[in-house]
Amino acid sequence: MTAEIINDCEQRVKKIYETFDASHDWQHIERVRRNAWMILQEEEGDALVVELAVLLHDVSDPKYKKEGEDPETVILEQLSLSRLQKKLIQDTIRSVSFKGGNGEPAVTVESRIVQDADRLDAIGAIGIARAFSYGGAKGRQLYDWNEVPRTSMTEQQYRSKPVSSVTHFYEKLLLLKDQMTTEAGKRIAEERHQFMLSFLQQLKKETDGNA
């Protein structure tokens, strides 16, 4: 039954992710899924809740969903799950989003796993690729070295101001390493964080005309 539920959910969400840009497409879900399974080897969480939360965590993302629609809730209601399971999955999903630093804290082991799994995909080489992919899809500048990164903002301010892709590193991506909550997440994040710092240093040299 578990495999059937996961497969049912997969088929429903894949159609949605295939309409998103490359920063939040089906490949993103596959990577987050692998991250979550890796973390699950060290954390004793409910694997079904973790997997379904991963599959559903972006279908109702405010950046993509149409006004008045909530695919996450619609799909959950169509799956053969108990009321408690649905609540656990939605509680887990709510803690995933960064929201300009205003996201809900991950209080359960499942939410910590999914949050770390998703944030690992936002940093390192793949995080760099995704940042510029999303920025390109939104017509944003690659960089603006005169733009001052915000250190405090509301969720609305975070979502509404179209900063350059490089500024997004300073407003979010470079902050994620220290927000990891699982031991596996912390280990992996360290290397990916250093890679982003090296990339930004090289980019600055090249755009300054020094390399």
From TrEMBL:
Residues 21-132 form the HD/PDEase domain. SMART domains: HDc. It comes from the Bacteria. It holds the Pfam family HD. CDD domains: HDc (cd00077). InterPro entries: HD/PDEase_dom, HD_domain. Transmembrane segments: none annotated. This is HD domain-containing protein. It comes from Planococcus salinus.
